[in-house]
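User: I'm curious what two different proteins look like when written out as structure tokens. Can you demonstrate?

Assistant: Sure. I'll show them one after the other, since each token string lines up with its own sequence. Here's the first protein:
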Amino acid sequence: MATNRRNFLRTTALGLTGAALTSPLNATNNSGKIPFYTSGAANGTATGTAESISKFRMREVEIRLLDRMGNPLKNKTVEISLTKHSFLFGDCNPEMDSMYRLGPAAAEKLDVYRKVFASTLNAVNSTCYWTERPRNNMAKTEAFQGEYKLDGFADTVDCGNANGLTVKGHPLFWTVPKAVPDWMSKYDYPTQLKFLEVRLRAMVGRFKGRVKLWDAVNEMLWEPALKNLADRNWPHLETLDNMAEYISFVLRICREEDPDAKFLLNDYGLEKTHNAKAQLAANDNDPNAARESGIPAKDGTIVTARLQRKRYLALVKRLREMGFPPSAIGLQGHSGAVTPAEQIAFYDEMSQAGLPLHVTEFWANPSDFDETFLKLPAKEQDINIAEYVKQFLTNAFAYPAIDCFFFWGFMDMATTWRENNAPVYEEKPILQTVRDLIHKEWNTHEILNTDSNGKIKFSGYYGDYSLHYGLPGSDKKNLGIPFKVGKYENMPYSLETMI
């Protein structure tokens, strides 16, 4: 089978063990290992997730309710409700754009689809490729020079914001030939950079304030710099200097247009190495084992997950030294099933960059598991996958360096739709599993009574809240007083009521 990115994502292998991960910051050739930098969940293990979630995602909250005259509102029953987590649970969902482009034929399905989506998740990652050819029919924003097609992307952005979803864009720049328009090739490199700058300013500037996160540069560890695109030979190990040069350019332009948005780097192939031999074998300084466990680049370098993690951290360090660090490190999660120990060890290593970590494109498919799993009935597979997703998502939520968790194709994993764009669907176990985690297990909802000083106290998740209380002489409640719970607010809050 030919080695390429698509086959790589289909055939990633048995995982690495936590013990096999050595620090990528160790530049010496001796056999000493640097301990992990662990910011984390249960000191680098996957145990104690409930305690870690309580420690890193919640805080004690104290609120003082005052009437319009500034007097304490005593002995009053109030209802506290979390309306949106500060932690983002999202999905990269090109199907929304595809249905939009289908127009009236898919309009009813799109409406139902979005309601199911928004009932579970609080963020949406909308696709906005410069171009994307030809297999996926993804959203192409300028496949032909000067012919901008942004309506589908804009529709998802506006719908997301209208429904309280945080919106992310994917990707601004991806130096794979299928994602760089053909018309760019007729220009020299300096002119190409000018066109790239126009794209970046147009996208970020137009959607400023409406798109809060962007995958600014996609899959740079496997692809060439723009100036070397014609020489691409996957896996293309671009030099650190060339990567830092064009990525710093992209990040500078983006931040000039929207200083408040977050701009990520995003990459794959970091948890596990291609081929059927475990990463542990490649870590034993055995060249033959390494060759069997990795992918040969053009120069003969064996590309392993360990190498790519090391390159990622070195790139982030260089960008920081240049004054253009990314806002966060994107970790795709296409590498197949991993154990909790592997998952946490991976986060421990990437945390050494000193930046937030975002899970950006997590999926869980039957092909990620072993042959025994594939022999199970489809419904049993779905149940087992839901349990795996629950475990993986819980471990990520418990890990303090993780800020966001985006699926890739959550709706495909969670629902089955009839053909011909019918707005009728069946739920799979993952839908309720994830919905219960976010909206039940990790939720804050309290009915409390103020004390003689007008105060209430509770333990709540970080996020947006609404406070309701009964109106005098009525069985109705007020429309709600909004407030936020974050890490650094001073307590108690003072909230003025209408009473």
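Here's a second, unrelated protein for contrast:
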Amino acid sequence: MHSIIKVQDLGKTYDSGFTALNNISLEIKRGEIFALLGPNGAGKTTLISIICGIARATSGNVLADGFDIVLNYREAREKIGLVPQELTNDAFESVWSTVNFSRGLFGKAPDKAYIEKILRQLSLWDKRNAKMRELSGGMKRRVMIAKALSHEPDILFLDEPTAGVDVELRRDMWEMVRELRESGVTIILTTHYIEEAEEMADRIGVIRKGEIILVEEKSALMDKLGKKTLSIHLQCNLNAIPSELSAFNLTLDQEGSYLHFSYDSTESDRVAELLAQLNTLEIGIKDLNSSESSLEDIFVDLVKEA
């Protein structure tokens, strides 16, 4: 699959000497949902701002669908829609006027049918004549997305799109993002909600202190770094883990009633070995329960290790 965004050796250092981005190289595939994860201050918003032409890089270059964001600014910017973190709208404008005006800013001819289509898609049609100040935070967030889509971009940046949005509305927006991807729009998402990335993303990028520390397919990432735990409820309590089980990564709870075996996806055959060894030692098993680490667990571990 061809890349629609190419970032090469991108750096950003402010006059104060603070380096927000350090030699970042990244390619985003056409038609994918790419989630960019990182703690506060990691450089997520700075990176997006540079790609979208809001901020200037100190070094490096960016291509948006083949157009250099500096040398071919207008062509590159037409390809991109941005939903920023902060809600900024004219409080006294109607929803229709707000979205329609945004389309005109990109030099696009009026298209009432298209504006109606995206308002309906975002469940805003019934609110088309409402003033922005009359809307809830969740509805204002939807209007921001409609504005970003008004000029029919091929690339959509969502910077913390569900911040302050209730759970039900968040689920609706996830569904909307999937529909946009199905229509051919490439989605780049930054989020603090790890479940958002786990639910939607095709690939995950992790940024920390201005550096990309990992880019991986979501499924491959979870297979590679995800940890599994087998909890074994014992029929009789143990005072300590028998020496015969020292080859396994085991822990014993305080009561001595549970053995916990941690392993990764490449060690699944070790479970059968452990159970066989327990049988040999005549350690009775009352119950078994297995769990798998979430993307949040993996993310926290990655940031700690970095």
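A detail about the second structure: The longest strand covers residues 3-13.
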